[in-house]
Design goal:
Strand content: 5-15%
CATH class of the largest domain: Mainly Alpha
Order of helices and strands: HHEEEHEHHEHHHHHHHHHHHEEEEE
Number of domains: 3
Shape: globular
CATH topology of the largest domain: Hypothetical protein af1432
Largest sheet: 5 strands, antiparallel
Protein name: HD-GYP domain-containing protein
InterPro entries: HD/PDEase_dom (IPR003607), HD_GYP_dom (IPR037522), HDIG_dom (IPR006675)
Strand order of the largest sheet: 3-2-1-4-5
Length: about 450
């Protein structure tokens, strides 16, 4: 039995692989034939479970047999491609029926990748007996204000992919190009201007296995949001965002087994880890396309563990002050790190507890003005916080309520009996009879926080 939540994603991935192979090889090539065999085997396996296989594009989503497919890190490219081709070709519903064979699915994949006119002519010829399509009408088109939410998600996952590739190149001693990271930072800036709260919500995505990549991107987004609140220009934000993305880049020179060590570090191991600030300078100097933005990133990579009171590492004169960007990244780095599960910290700090820690150590580790601005940005209960309400229901904070920082927008995830809920949204600033009883760990009721944001 195939897990239903993975069935659609696997189908899309295999279909995408066949299409990409057909862009390089002819229909009879072994590569194409093998890709088709894998796909048709999977399709027929699904058809033994379902009467038919239906992919529906609606409201910028793809649904597999009425279940919405979510954007995932690894499957992003395939889902995005299939979605865009369905949209370009005007297809609302694509259905695979029992009886389909390898030759038919190869022929359909070869036609599917063509331009709309060619695609339409082939469909009209009636050559596909076990594949049916339903074309969209104007009424099916989604309004722009609904499309923005998916656009923000795509921007986030594109940025995550670029971050992953950049760090992979450096980890494998290959020369990395700064241009790709520069472009994605500008995309993040644009996304923030469209929907700051929507993009900030995605920083609640925490991938235990991909911590280094997630952390770098989340620090960049948090830094950009804080910089935007401070009124920085777009040019300054581009420098800050790139610096946030690259702040931990020196860790590529630290042995992975040390970075992911489950137990407590020895003093010698901790000293090795601390050298990532020095290594960050050399790693950025090695990249192609180094310019003024890269030079700012060098400073932040070196200074982001300097404390407000003059302490911190690497060693420096106590009267040497970290730059504004380094002070911003210092706060965002600490916040994301403490709220994320890691090998040696399997249960992360609750977000509101981290805000208290930042507040406690202002004037020592952190710039007090920036701490206040960050708390105003994140709210009393930051996005991703799991709350128990006075009704006994459990909810997640989805967005901040700018006029009411202690009364955010929430999504119900468990009912009063702690059974899985329908996900109803509540604006606590409007439903004032509902009180927040306490903040709880999402693990207590097996709530997967990230799944509600992708």
């Amino acid at each position: 039995m195939i897990a239903t939540d993975k069935s659609g994603a696997n189908l899309v991935s295999l279909f995408y692989a066949l299409i990409k192979d057909l862009q390089v090889y002819d229909l009879n090539n072994d590569v194409v034939q093998n890709a088709a065999k894998r796909l048709i085997y999977y399709v027929n396996t699904l058809l033994n479970m379902y009467k038919h296989i239906e992919l529906v594009r609606y409201m910028d989503y793809i649904f597999f047999n009425k279940q919405r497919l979510r954007f995932e890190i690894d499957g992003y490219a395939s889902l995005q491609y299939i979605h865009d081709k369905l949209k370009t070709n005007g297809v609302k519903t694509l259905t695979f029926l029992p009886g389909i064979d390898k030759d038919e699915i190869i022929l359909f994949a070869s036609v599917f990748k063509e331009e709309p006119d060619t695609f339409g002519k082939h469909l009209a010829s009636g050559m596909f007996e076990h594949i049916s399509t339903e074309f969209a009408t104007e009424e099916d088109e989604i309004p722009d204000f609904l499309r923005d939410g998916e656009h923000i998600k795509r921007t986030y996952f594109q940025a995550l992919k670029v971050t992953k590739n950049l760090l992979h190149y450096l980890w494998t001693n290959q020369t990395a190009d700064m241009k790709s990271s520069r472009r994605i930072v500008y995309n993040l800036i644009n996304a923030l201007s469209q929907d700051e709260l929507g993009l900030l919500a995605l920083t609640a995505i925490k991938d235990f296995d991909e911590y280094t990549y997630n952390h770098s991107l989340n620090v960049a987004i948090l830094s950009l949001a804080l910089g935007q609140r401070l009124g920085l220009s777009k040019k300054a934000l581009a420098r800050l965002g790139t610096a946030g993305l690259l702040h931990d880049i020196g860790k590529v020179q630290i042995p992975k087994q040390l970075i992911y060590k489950p137990g407590k570090l020895t003093e010698e191991e901790w000293e090795t880890i601390k050298h990532h600030s020095d290594y960050g300078v050399t790693e950025i100097l090695k990249t192609r396309g180094l310019d003024e933005i890269g030079l700012v990133s060098i400073t932040v990579a070196y200074q982001h563990h300097w404390n407000f009171d003059g302490s911190g590492y690497p060693a420096h004169e106590q009267d040497q002050e970290p730059t504004l960007f380094a002070r911003i990244v210092r706060i965002c780095d600490s916040y994301d790190a403490m709220t994320t599960a890691r090998v040696y910290q399997p249960i992360p700090y609750l977000p509101h507890i981290v805000l208290r820690i930042l507040w406690k150590y202002q004037n020592i580790f952190y710039d007090p003005v920036l701490v206040k601005a960050f708390i105003q940005l994140s709210g009393i209960y930051p996005v991703g916080s799991c709350l128990e309400l006075s009704s006994g229901e459990v909810c997640l904070v989805i967005r901040q309520n700018q006029g009411h920082l202690a009364r955010p927008f929430v999504k119900l995830v468990r009912d009063a009996h702690k059974k899985k809920s329908d996900g109803r949204m509540i604006d606590l600033a409007v439903d004032k009879h509902i009180k927040i009883a306490k903040v709880i760990y999402p693990q207590k009721f097996r709530v997967d926080v990230a799944s509600y944001f992708v």
